[in-house]
Amino acid sequence: MSHISLPDDMPGIRALVAYRTDTGKILYELAEALLRSESTLKRAERELIAAYVSWLNECAFCASSHAAASRHLFNERSDIVDAVLKDYRTAPISAKLKALLKIAGKVQQNGRLVTEEDVADAHAHGATDREIHDAVLIAASFSMFNRYVDGLATWAPEDPDVYTEMGRRMAEQGYARRFSQVVSEHQVEHGPR
């Protein structure tokens, strides 16, 4: 049960967005920019960074939903997601993505743990400054999202099929469009705020 009165029919961040649409809109726009805007990192890779950080933070809702989105985007290579969550160092991904995940994992713990050597290693494996920047920003932002979702004790579905569908919608529709749908669904059920 959540720590504050939230919509019972909406899990995770969706309930928080419906509760406070002014900040929810900004958070969804941030997710849209981080995970779907133009980038040399594939959308599947950016969703994977979000899922990995959420998994490290033990945020069941965010880890499961973003892992599902990443699986959907990786398509036939969806097993990469589980391999990364098991141990990114042995997963069948590029050395560049491994270096970015190492940095993201350090940011999840404490941003000051990222060293010049970590950045040099990412550069040596082909990461651009923008890719390093975005990996750090995704890790920092998702640590915030995770703490927001778990700090107010939102509920997370246990059925993996729910996340498969959620991940498909996130991957195909994005976050800005989902914001409008969440607000609309909440208003239909509970009336305007």
N- to C-terminal separation? 22 Å
H/E series, N to C? Answer: HHHHHHHHHH
* CATH fold type of the domain at 41-173: AhpD-like
Largest sheet: none
Low-pLDDT runs of 5+ residues are none
Cα radius of gyration in angstroms: 16 Å
Overall helicity: over 70%
Mean pLDDT: 93
Class by helix and strand content?
Answer: mainly alpha
Identify the overall geometry.
globular
- CATH superfamily of the domain at 41-173, by name, is AhpD-like
DSSP summary, beta strand count: 0
Number of separate helices: 10
Strand content: under 5%
CATH class of the domain at 41-173: Mainly Alpha
CATH architecture heading of the domain at 41-173:
Up-down Bundle
What are the salient characteristics of this protein?
mainly alpha; 10 helices; globular; 72% helix; 193 residues; single chain; AhpD-like
Describe the overall structure.
The protein has helices at residues 12-19, 21-36, 43-56, 60-74, 79-87, 95-109, 116-124, 129-151, 160-173, 176-190. By secondary structure, the chain is mainly α. It has a domain at 41-173: AhpD-like (Up-down Bundle). The model has no long low-confidence stretch (mean pLDDT 93).
Brief rundown of the structure:
This protein is mainly α. It is built from ten helices and no strands.
Question: What topology does this entry show?
Answer:
Layout: H1 12-19, H2 21-36, H3 43-56, H4 60-74, H5 79-87, H6 95-109, H7 116-124, H8 129-151, H9 160-173, H10 176-190
Helix pairs in contact: 1-2, 1-10, 2-8, 2-10, 3-4, 3-6, 3-8, 4-5, 4-9, 6-7, 6-8
